[in-house]
Design a protein that fits this description.
about 450 residues, alpha/beta, Rossmann fold, Dihydrodipicolinate Reductase, domain 2, 3 domains, 8-stranded mixed beta sheet, 15 helices, 19 strands, about 35% helix, binds [cytidine-5'-phosphate] glycerylphosphoric acid ester
């Protein structure tokens, strides 16, 4: 952090006695809501410090595709004429350190953050200010005409986190839903109490496609293929759950998406996490020597088959698809438990998928020269521990990703669509087909 601007006198005595107020924000596309917030914050004391989030910190906290860069956002705050000092917010936990370091008396922030900064109350007064209604950076981006409208084609009242996650990706707006079932539609459009509070239930899938720029197909596996096909045929890009029923279905759709130059992106949020990329590149670079085994456990997140496909995705990213032989052992007692075993000429992987409440999720990768551990929800990993050489102490690699990961996939989708591509380089259609072939060989479809 560095002071960028000093309006007030530098007289130390004056500085010592005055009441300092601090506030933070991204201040993307600076607007009247930001201006009013700064005015009211300033009025709470004699000296206003404004923390503007760095581009990296916004990415880390999952605020993606912010339109203005840090220099532009700082400039906008400076031009408001309200800040006595501007600092840059670069990391989680900085607020507390700033409050102490700058001798701050009041921390003020919009009431969309109500309750979240109460912990600062030990060091200064915490005030949540009413937000200005009817204006937001999101609204302005929309007015600029570059919003991507997203519709949901679904058969379940669970949105797979799309609605919440889309809020963090600027340039994208979830408009509405089509579902055959009235109760499902109601969950999406029946107002805030029933669920997602979307504007619109479309009368049919065709209208949904016409009125949106991108469709999320979130349906049972047996219906995914036809639904995604209808979207592409209606001329719109699609995000669809992974996997399809058969490799043939995937082949068909990938060909159609190429032919029509429309993006088809399979929903595997793990594929889009920075931490996962780093893990894969480090393993391929020999971080643990030669990989001997992968062991992982995960709950049946809604569907055993979809959970197995996710595990297969992770395992094959580590050990490859070519030489994989797969089989599944299904155990059924009071709780269901599937075990999927991948054998390779020089390595093996075991994935345990269960709906038992006692399952301990995690992943361990054992190599000739080291080991990687990912405790907990590895499919949403934001760190891993690498044990190598003589040292018993692991090194920790992390990216502080936020949320269930869908937002990173959405941000990539926005890019792929803007560039007019049919697929993302992160999970290409070709790689996905290889994985489908593995799943088919192991009778996992
Ligand atoms: N704000 C407002 N009225 C609006 C829009 C925003 O009062 N119509 C306020 C927000 O509540 C916030 C400030 O303006 O206090 C900046 O908003 P953003 O740029 O959206 O920043 P935000 O993501 O809220 O970051 O560490 C960062 C902070 O936690 C806040």
């Amino acid at each position: 952090m560095f002071p960028i601007l000093h309006h007030e006198s530098n007289d130390m005595l004056y500085l010592f006695h005055m009441k300092k107020v601090i506030t933070y924000g991204t201040f993307d596309m600076f607007h009247v809501g930001h201006q009013r917030l700064l005015e009211r914050a300033k009025a709470l004391g004699d000296y206003l410090i404004v923390g503007v989030t760095s581009d990296g910190f916004d990415r880390e906290r999952g605020k993606l595709n912010v339109r203005d860069n840090l220099a532009q956002r700082i400039d906008a705050v400076r031009q408001s004429g309200l800040a006595d000092e501007i600092i840059v917010e670069e990391y989680q936990g900085q607020k507390l350190s700033d409050v102490v370091k700058h001798g701050v008396s009041v921390f003020a922030i919009g009431n969309d953050w109500r309750g979240q900064f109460d912990y600062l109350g030990k060091y200064c007064e915490v005030i949540y200010l009413e937000r200005t209604k009817g204006v937001s950076s999101t609204g302005l981006r929309k007015a600029n005409g570059r919003m991507l409208r997203v519709g949901i084609l679904t058969d379940t009242a669970d949105d797979a986190d799309l609605v919440g996650e889309a809020n963090f990706v600027s340039g994208i707006e979830v408009t509405g839903v089509y579902a055959e079932d009235e109760a499902v539609r109601h969950a999406f459009v029946g107002g805030a109490e029933t669920g997602y509070d979307l504007q619109k239930a479309y009368p049919d899938a065709k209208t949904l496609c016409e009125e949106n720029d991108l469709v999320f197909v979130h349906r049972r596996r047996r219906d995914r293929y036809l639904a995604a096909k209808a979207v592409l045929e209606a001329g719109k890009p699609v995000i669809v759950d992974f996997p399809f029923n058969k490799p043939g279905e995937a082949r068909d759709l990938f060909a159609l998406s190429r032919e029509k130059d429309l993006a088809l992106i399979e929903r595997v949020p793990l594929a889009y996490l920075n931490t996962f990329h780093q893990l894969i590149w480090m393993l391929h670079g020999g971080a643990v020597g030669q990989v001997l085994s992968v062991e992982c456990a995960l709950p049946a997140l809604g569907s055993f088959r979809d959970a197995e496909a996710l595990a297969a995705f992770a395992v094959t990213r580590i050990l490859g698809t070519e030489q994989a032989e797969v089989r599944r052992l299904a155990l059924r007692s009071r709780a269901r438990c599937d075990r999927v075993i991948f054998s390779y000429p020089d390595a093996a992987a075991t994935c345990t998928i269960s709906d038992s409440a006692w399952l301990t999720p995690g992943m361990t990768i054992l190599g000739t020269d080291g080991r990687v551990d990912i405790p907990g929800a590895w499919w949403n990993m934001n760190y891993f521990r690498l044990y190598e050489g003589e040292s018993a102490e692991p090194r920790r690699y992390s990216f502080n990703t936020e949320g269930p990961g869908f937002r990173y996939l959405l941000a990539e989708a926005v890019k792929v669509i803007a560039e007019g591509r049919a697929e993302s380089g992160v999970l290409t259609h070709e790689k996905s087909l290889h994985l489908m072939d593995v799943l088919a060989r192991g009778d996992l479809l």
